[in-house]
Amino acid sequence: MFAPPVPHSASRMPLLDVVKGLACLVIVGHHLARYGPLSAGASPLAPQFFEWLARDGRLAVQIFLVLAGFLAACNMAPEGWLRVDRPLARVFHRYARLVMPYLAALSISVLAAALVRPWLHDDAVPAAPGLAQLLAHGLLLQDLLGYEALSTGVWYVAIDFQLFVLALAAIGFAGLLQRHMAMAPERARWLAVALVLLLAVASLAVFNRNADLDDTALYFFGAYGLGMLTFWIGQATRRSTWGFALALLLLVGASALALEWRSRIAIALVTALLLALAQRRERLWQAEWWPLAGLGRISYSLFLIHFPVLLLVSAVVDHLAPNGPWVDLFGLLLTFVLSIAAAVALYRWVESRPATWRGVLALFAGLLACGAITA
User: Fold this and answer.
1) How many CA atoms lie within 13 A of 322 on its CB side?
2) How far apart are CA 102 and CA 100, in angstroms?
3) Which of 176, 190, 322, 308 is nearest to 245 (CA)?
4) Tens digits of per-residue pLDDT, 243-277?
5) DSSP string covering 291-322, please?
6) How confident is the model over 17-49, as pLDDT tens digits?
């Protein structure tokens, strides 16, 4: 017998927090190894490790994409049909949940860049932003409009929002077809799953192979769609259905890799398959290993806030401390520790608070004020 389906509550999926914690460590390490003068100074101590982090650490983003798709299916359509009465309200809620900590961290990044700009002469330090650039960032349009990023990883926030809207539109369209064609609910469920599968296949086979589309959700929907499909696979109660669906998922991923090998897609496929298997092992699924689970819960805040911390620590170490690889390594470790402390504060005071129009507008105004002060 298989374990019961995964409950429809993200708060009861501690294994996901563990996975997010591990992926977040790699992403933060990737940025620490790639940006600022500290990594260049410390890299002689472990050159291969720093080179791997700087080159391949970004692949951990694929894990977040799969998990984001998994949780999107869990929250908006656990049975395969849309569980949202007001889709536009749900879109705003997703936007608000993403941008409230994002706007707060971006404001800190703008201030930090202004503080270090006179002393830290490094390509990682963003130029003073203009009003249009700030507005584009606040609306998650900076990459589509061609503006320089004000912090690392802001592209991911915009892509996450695009992916959510695209997935919501696909599942909602299936619901419209179901009502228009008077389809039975069971058929409508399979129609929604089929539309997501079709989008994922199109992304893996076509859109993800076109680098010009990497500012759009179409480029990344392959990994996101694999996550959505993985959640629905886990809801199968029959061994035969679960086995067939898992084999289909493997076939889709393997075919995409046979068409063109891409490490990012291989990582996404392995993540999806491991999640599908873990859902059938209740003890594993409910496993919670501290401190990784705790790190996973604040991973979004950590992802957002570590860059301004890196700028500040880099400026202090570069300006005040003697040059040397061990000093620079200490600076990187200090950056990581302070980033976790800042992430805890950001999570407690912003991310965990209810998402409201008032909160979004206040934080948006704060970002514009920071830009005006530092211009």
Assistant:
1) 2
2) 5
3) 190
4) 999 999 999 999 999 999 999 999 999 999 999 99
5) THHHHHHTHHHHHHHHHHHHHHHHHHHHHHSP
6) 999 999 999 999 999 999 999 999 999 999 999
